[in-house]
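Dock magnesium ion; give full complex structure.
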Amino acid sequence: QPQIILLKEGTDTSQGKAQLVSNINACTAVADVVRTTLGPRGMDKLIHDDKGNVTISNDGATIMKLLDIVHPAAKILVDIAKSQDSEVGDGTTTVVLLAGEFLKEAKPFVEDGVHPQNLIRSYRTACYLAIEKIKELAVSIEGKSLEEKKSLLAKCAATTLSSKLIGGEKVFFASMVVDAVIAIGNDDRLNMIGIKKVPGGNMRDSFLVNGVAFKKTFSYAGFEQQPKKFLNPKILLLNIELELKSEKENAEIRLSDPSQYQSIVDAEWNIIYDKLDKCVKSGAKVVLSRLAIGDLATQYFADRDIFCAGRVAEEDLQRVAAATGGTVQTSVNNIIDEVLGTCEVFEEKQVGNERFNIFSGCPSGRTATIVLRGGADQFIEEAERSLHDAIMIVRRALKNSTVVAGGGAIDMEISRYLRQHARTIAGKSQLFINSYAKALEVIPRQLCDNAGFDATDVLNKLRQKHALPSGEGASYGVDINTGGIADSFTNFVWEPSVVKSNAINAATEAACLILSVDETVKNPKSESAQGEAAASAMAGKGRGRGRGMRRR
Ligand code: ADP
Ligand code: MG
């Protein structure tokens, strides 16, 4: 028999059961990394790279991103964490843990020779049932008054924040986040909520500006003579340079008579004075520009009691425009009143070591800015990430307006439901659905482990409560304060239902995807540049599938 050569020399393939088991092991290892960060008593990870950047984080997505995983199958877990982060913003550790646990539960079956497709089919069914159950258990917050809604949303935000570094001040930050989200209303642009970080001071010195705040920009002489506070000023937003330009670099001018030179200099001065004059005539008291405002202009405005700031960051300028109702102008000709913005109070204020320009009481009120204070840089960075999670959660809860009980309560309830359902199934599928149900218990178990409680004990109590035929125990979860169990619903440990349904969906998809791979081929070139492409193609595949299945 002649040997058939199919693949290039040096190609490495591994296939079959061994390959599948090794992929599962890789994913379990990844899940083990983030395992300890789950929940209010979870630990943080310190990650530093060769450039000396240090990040301390509790956020699953951030950790996964920084780990720089190279294993092609384990990369899928990084992708689901990322997509959970962008879809709902929270539950990133949960999604990785669940996927890892689903795979772990599948491993003995695979080793025993069960065909992966059987597992996949059962997992999909279980996922569908779980999501239906979440829909059934979700409690709507629709139709409540604004005050009631606010306090409900603050509870959701507090649950998210409780697992973070700033958890100690969760009530303070939760109400701040809710105010910020309600301020921007239906605006979909997340950057309408600005977060400014000012190192130093105490966490509690952080404050919310109902409008825009940004750090004082670079300024020239004369700036100190400008007034720093206005009530109801008109605000002019520009995208032009207000600087004396010497044109000699840009143009070639031929002069036949030295006296003509003066006229050119004069013309330049006239141009800039003309521009400045038009700004003043518009009636604006505050002039902001994305481009530079030079020393001449600064002095000119100072003499006329006008405040100016140049080189304002694009994002900040857009937010000022949205908040004050102004429009950014690219010319100073014909400035009509409609393009000028206004706000109740404009002032420049000292915050820690920095000076801030603050626009508050804005008429259209579509922006809000949180000024974060706190000790070390890493601390503020993590605080910002945590607030981002909370902001996303409040927005999600506001949009979908249904919540479920957290602290592992919903996971236990789905688990119970699936076990019960499994009993009605004849055949092997019963076992697989039971395993899926068991995997869901990882959330309460890990919450206990991370807090130092006896997980077996707590889980048994939870199972017993959830099994009550009256269904009154359905919202019992881990009580993080006493080490026992408590009704998460009445304790206000709430999560938007979309966090859970999205996490379960994405984790199941990832597990099924990994179970469906039975062969990895590595061609000899993949060591070099091609490796990157192949890896990203694989990652891309994972992402593509995940997105297709997810619902909003
Ligand atoms: P993730 O990145 O998945 O959001 P977290 O570290 O934020 O992970 O932990 C979230 C888990 O912690 C959720 O299951 C949530 O229900 C639980 N949790 C949050 N606050 C509490 C609390 N006060 N008591 C019990 N469980 C809580
Ligand atoms: Mg969280």
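Observed: Residues 212-251+258-364 form a domain with the GroEL fold (CATH 3.50.7.10).
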